[in-house]
Amino acid sequence: MARLGSWIEPFPEGIYVKPADAWVDPSRPRDRSLVTHGHADHARGGHGKVWATPETLAIMEARYGDQRGVGVGYGEKVRIGDVDVSFVPAGHVLGSAQILLEHRGERVVVSGDYKRRSDPTCPPFEVTPCDIFISEATFGLPVFRHPDTGSEIDRLLHRLRAEPGRCVLVGAYALGKAQRVIMELRRRAFHDPIYIHGALERLCRLYEELGVPLGELRLATGVPKAELQDKIILCPPGALNDRWSRRLPDPITAMASGWMRIRQRARQRNVELPLIISDHADWDELTRTIREVAPREVWITHGREDALMHWCQLHQIKARELNLVGYEDEDD
């Protein structure tokens, strides 16, 4: 009898689906690639042909130019070789998907990155029962328990109002996190213009073209310092402490990331206001998801594999580490 999932082969550079002759999220260009979402550690340029959600293809085109892509909407099923392939919402960023692979009666779900929290910029994660669940483990340690997102946004707004004459400069990754922070602010009835670094403009505009209304956004570059007092400004994490930020009116430096749970990371970046807002599942959400999916095996990748492996073993769930290369936290 063949081993469960013998038709799925993990390599350091990605997951090879043999009966489809295709790769999932390969770190090098391949002839046939299935892509879970648009972050650069999962979506690379140069593939021969790409299957992804239409939103992910649009993001890849914005980043890498024209793609030989096949857009697969949520709930659709396509046949690639001898494998039925479906894309299921992952709740990570706009267009993000779990990839369901069905072959000879076996179901394999490649989660990509995912989260279980509500996010106004993308559809929520859908639990998909399967035989093998290939799960990320970015925050796969019990120390990572993310607080309520609304309470973190309230902290940001309280700080803005408590120190008039200053601004709050929030470091947020350009794809997903920046747009989510903007929409969470809008959820809290913050309708003032939000200022952004030029590096965020292209993807913010793309989100709006894809149906995510972000409200009034203005470029911060070239704006008189007085106009930026008492304002919220978003920038890539790398711009928090560079020359660009020094022209702002006494900024309160903030960063939106699950890694802000670790105080040393906040100190290393000179972050005055750490905001624990993550686009990945925390420890409780990872373990809850495995329970709900109820797979026969869990394969764990890019993250804290050891702790989640141990948890699976304690709960009599067969598990293995994949140790894929090329995955980064992208400032979560």
TrEMBL record:
It comes from Sphingomonas brevis. PANTHER family: BLL1145 PROTEIN (PTHR11203:SF49), CLEAVAGE AND POLYADENYLATION SPECIFICITY FACTOR FAMILY MEMBER (PTHR11203). Keywords: Exonuclease, Hydrolase, Ligase, Nuclease. This is Ligase-associated DNA damage response exonuclease. It is an enzyme of class 3 (hydrolase). Residues 11-173 form the Metallo-beta-lactamase domain. The keyword Iron does not apply. InterPro entries: MBL, Metallo-B-lactamas, RibonucZ/Hydroxyglut_hydro, Xnuc_lig_assoc. NCBIfam families: Xnuc_lig_assoc. Its EC number is 3.1.-.-. One of its GO terms (molecular function) is exonuclease activity. SUPFAM superfamilies: Metallo-hydrolase/oxidoreductase.
